[in-house]
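hey so u asked for the seq, here:
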Amino acid sequence: MKVLTDRAIAFDSIWVSGRRLKIAIENDMNSADIKSAKNEVVDLKAFDYIKSPDDNEIEKPDTFREPPVKLHGDALIRYYLGSSANYISIPTITVLPPIYGQ
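ran it, structure tokens below
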């Protein structure tokens, strides 16, 4: 995703296939916050697990929730600019075959 703002932006969740998944920036599973990345392209990773506060167990988040706004397309991403929640609608998702040996 290309970031078009110089304001701090935080990616939070994605709703896809009737599920809510957490999202994070690639290589940073603890946070999806970007302080200043105008015109940078970031890779977002969706996952359906979170680490517990003591990092010893994996907890399941509330994955089966309706999106907070009407879903128009295959997915909906929630992000924050400051304290304001915003949404990006993803019209279609193309499923690619798995790559083995990686």
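The beta strands are 9-16, 19-25, 33-34, 44-47, 50-51, 58-59, 75-81, 84-90. The chain has a mean pLDDT of 77.
lmk if thats what u needed
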